[in-house]
TrEMBL record:
Stored CDD domains: SDR_c (cd05233)
Cited NCBIfam families: PRK07231.1 (NF005559), PRK12826.1-2 (NF009466)
Superkingdom field: Bacteria
Matching InterPro entries: NAD(P)-bd_dom_sf (IPR036291), Sc_DH/Rdtase_CS (IPR020904), SDR (IPR050259), SDR_fam (IPR002347)
Higher taxonomy: Bacteria, Bacillati, Bacillota, Bacilli, Bacillales
UniProt KW keywords: Oxidoreductase
One GO-annotated biological process of the protein: bile acid metabolic process
Protein name per Swiss-Prot or TrEMBL: SDR family oxidoreductase
A single MF term (Gene Ontology): oxidoreductase activity
Family the entry assigns: Belongs to the short-chain dehydrogenases/reductases (SDR) family.
Length: 253
């Protein structure tokens, strides 16, 4: 386990922290004795994950909130700050993918992907920054994707949303540097989670993915968590506007 002693007692909000990569990130923070607040829509998953987090740090909480709903975003930050007293770190992790040929993508599909992945990251960051400016300190980490750097079949909306997230990271980093808020992103390659489980039922897809990753295997959620903890720690205090690729070399090809 990666240990960063300066994360102890920091207050962290991880959106989509109930499952998959977000859950691993939340566990990473809890193991470093940070106060963790996770959010998501399904309350049962949130309750189960918070029980696991509390084994490492009792000061962990959840907020049931849909990041595509502005009132829920408002509630999520209010409750997070009520629970933890302050907000030091935001991880914009909640996300989804709709895999469809571009010719079949509907307006509803497009809006769902862009609203969940990109619009939410902007408005959650804006809300977080309002608290962080009061402390003149903060860290915002966006979970983007290698798909923000490259194209791939049937992922027009997803690639657009993640490319947008990388640009958003740079812009907010520049604008909020004066408040001592670092804004960075992590861009993972494929990881087996609920989000990708049906994709890997397609053998051709699986073969193609393995061929494109020089390290020859998929990433693990802990690979993302390591990068997130580094970007959250004071050790990375001079890093801002950066996107760390955790892609086994996919985008280096
Ligand atoms: P999962 O589907 O396993 O988990 C997604 C999480 O986001 C869940 O906690 C889910 O909870 C939450 N979530 C989804 N939609 C919303 C919403 N509208 N409001 C609030 N919470 C929401 O996905 P992963 O762990 O695989 O993905 C996490 C992030 O990592 C995403 O941004 C994804 O794009 C990115 N990523 C994933 C890769 C992969 O291969 N898995 C590769 C590169 C990037 P609930 O459903 O209860 O709301």
């Amino acid at each position: 386990m990666t240990h960063f002693s300066d994360l102890q007692n920091k207050s962290v909000l991880v959106t989509g922290g109930s499952k998959g990569i977000g859950k691993d990130i939340a566990l990473g923070f809890a193991k470093n004795q940070a106060n963790v607040i996770i959010s998501g829509r399904n309350e049962t998953s949130l309750q189960d994950t918070v029980q696991e987090l509390r084994k490492h740090n009792p000061s962990c909480y959840y907020v049931q909130a849909d990041v595509t709903n502005m009132e829920d975003i408002e509630k999520m930050f209010r409750m997070a700050v009520d629970y933890a007293g302050r907000l030091d770190i935001l991880v914009n992790n909640a996300g989804l993918n709709i895999t469809k040929p571009a010719l079949d993508v509907t307006e509803e599909d497009w809006d769902q992907v862009l609203d969940t992945n990109l619009k939410s990251a902007f408005f959650c960051s804006q809300k977080a920054a309002k608290y962080m400016t009061e402390n003149n300190a903060g860290k915002i980490i966006n979970i983007a994707s290698q798909m923000g750097f490259v194209g791939y079949w049937d992922r027009a909306a997803y690639c657009s949303s993640k490319g947008g997230m990388i640009q958003l990271t740079k812009t907010l980093a520049i604008e909020w540097a004066k408040y001592n808020i670092n804004v960075n992103a992590v861009a993972p390659t494929y990881i087996k989670t609920e989000l990708t489980s049906t994709m890997f039922e397609d053998e051709e897809f699986e073969k193609d993915v393995y061929q494109r990753i020089p390290l020859g295997k998929l990433a693990d959620p802990s690979d993302v968590t390591g990068a997130v903890l580094y970007l959250s720690s004071t050790i990375s205090k001079f890093v801002t506007g950066e996107t760390i690729k955790v892609d086994g070399g996919w985008t280096a090809l």
